[in-house]
Design brief:
heterodimer, A: about 375 residues, alpha+beta, two-stranded antiparallel sheet, 11 strands, globular, B: mainly alpha, 3 helices, about 0% strand
């Protein structure tokens, strides 16, 4: 057992319980490899959570080398600064949608930051994720184009917004599950633009059909107060939980993400764990109803099974989910179970060359 | 032409696919063997280069590239358009 990764796994629960006893015990009995700790902390987008848990606990803080304290503190301050810029600049884009009666809901980052991280600047916000009905895609494109929300990407070498390449334009046109990236200029040195990532209810595996999230926009949205100045529509807890579950599944089985070693991150599993701990009663009541749609059962049960494996929880049991033993390490559905990896979910999490764990049927 | 298309797919996406492109039939859904939208963009570029064509925006649709047969049809449509334009010109 590697002490560094064990500490990372305990952070979400320590945050939720406001108690770091288990992490203190790891320090008592083990020597922590700080190189591994920081490397994995960066890979898994955990640095702000590390600092948040450590900074108020003198026992933990005392363990951290001085140069890392400074690094973690600075990283946290930058994340706070960037998150606050998002709060400031996204209102304009969201107002454009509301004023034109576009049904939408914010998902993931900024919503989770409020709902499960209590606005402590723990999520690393790299964009504003919103979900719309795919039928509104052209209207949203038009509204943003007229409303000084720029189509394109930010080039950090030239400090300019550049147009999407033909490759990117084709990609957006083909997937349908996302609109092109939109940017709002901030004029800030650290975060010159905030990015808006608009996903639609077209199926995530590019089959051209629509999924149920479009219906949820009409039947299951409530207004969440992010802060005094920002209120945004978000999906009901069961729908949002499903969204982040399926998002994780999509990452876990994307060959492209696996090759780039960014398929699954501990922070994604943390989100699920904390969502569960914060909204358990709602999820137990409502989530099984959503899962009557059998087309997503396998994906959901796979994600929850591995969440339980990492955190030694029993969410699967509480939600009445079971995963077939021969599906635990396999991709099902779109790949017909052809691809699988050897080892545990943690082998994938901590591995630096994830693709080497994967085999195809018939390979030894 | 279907053998030629398979060769292009293999050249463009070989390492991205879960199974050998020669093991599937012409109507098999390519998304079931690991092709995703990014792979499809690579494939479109490879087809454009091979056949010296450019797919118009209205041709950029997943369904038009879903199977080997669909790809063959799509290329035929584009070639026909080019012929018509050349004849008019």
């Amino acid at each position: 057992m590697e002490a560094a990764t064990e500490i990372l796994k305990k952070l979400a629960l320590s945050f939720f319980n406001k108690n770091s006893n288990e992490i203190e015990k790891i320090f008592e009995n083990n020597k922590v490899d700080w190189g591994v700790f920081i490397d994995q902390g960066i890979k898994h987008k955990m640095l702000p959570l590390i600092w948040h848990v450590f900074k108020d606990n003198p026992i933990l803080l005392d363990q951290v080398p001085f140069y890392l304290k400074e690094f973690l503190s600075n990283n946290y301050l930058v994340n706070r600064h960037k998150t606050n810029l998002y709060y400031t600049y996204i209102s304009h884009a969201l107002d454009l949608l509301s004023e034109n009666n576009i049904k939408f809901a914010a998902v993931k980052g900024i919503v989770l930051e409020k709902l499960i991280y209590d606005n402590h600047y723990i999520k690393t916000i790299s964009d504003l994720d919103i979900l719309i009905d795919g039928m509104d895609g052209d209207t949203v494109n038009e509204l943003f184009s007229k409303g000084n929300v720029y189509l394109g990407k930010y080039d950090y070498l030239t400090n300019q917004i550049s147009s999407h390449s033909r490759q990117q334009q084709l990609l957006f046109k083909l997937t349908k599950d996302h609109l092109s990236d939109y940017l709002i200029s901030t004029g800030d040195d650290i975060l010159p633009t905030v990015k808006i990532d608009v996903s639609t209810d077209y199926d995530w595996i590019n089959r051209g059909s629509k999924n149920k999230f479009g219906e949820y926009l009409y039947s299951g949205v409530f207004e969440l107060e992010i802060n005094e100045r920002l209120k945004i529509p978000v999906l009901n807890h069961a729908y949002h939980f499903l969204y982040i579950v399926l998002h994780l599944y999509r990452h876990a089985w994307s060959y492209r993400f696996i090759k780039r070693n960014i398929s699954i991150r501990l922070s994604m599993f943390n989100d699920l764990l904390l969502y569960w701990l914060n909204f358990k009663s709602e999820l137990v009541e409502e989530f099984p109803l959503i899962l009557q749609d059998s087309s997503i059962y396998k994906q959901v049960s796979w994600v929850i099974y591995h969440t339980d494996q990492i955190f030694e929880t029993d969410i699967s049991k509480s939600l009445g989910l079971t995963v077939e033993s021969n599906s635990i390490n396999n991709a099902f559905g779109q790949n017909n179970g052809i691809i699988y990896w050897e080892g545990s979910i943690e082998n994938r999490l901590w591995c630096h060359d994830e693709i080497t764990l994967f085999k195809t049927e018939g390979e030894n | 032409m279907n053998v030629e298309i398979r060769e292009i797919i293999k050249e463009a996406l070989g390492s991205m696919l879960f199974i050998d492109i020669y093991e599937i039939n012409d109507d098999y859904d390519l998304f079931l063997i690991g092709i995703d939208s990014l792979n499809l963009v690579q494939l479109i570029f490879a087809l454009e280069e091979k056949y010296e064509i450019v797919f118009d925006e209205d041709m950029i649709d997943v369904d038009r590239f879903k199977t080997i047969n669909e790809i063959i049809k799509t290329i035929s449509v584009v070639k026909e358009r080019i012929n018509v334009q050349n004849n008019i010109g």
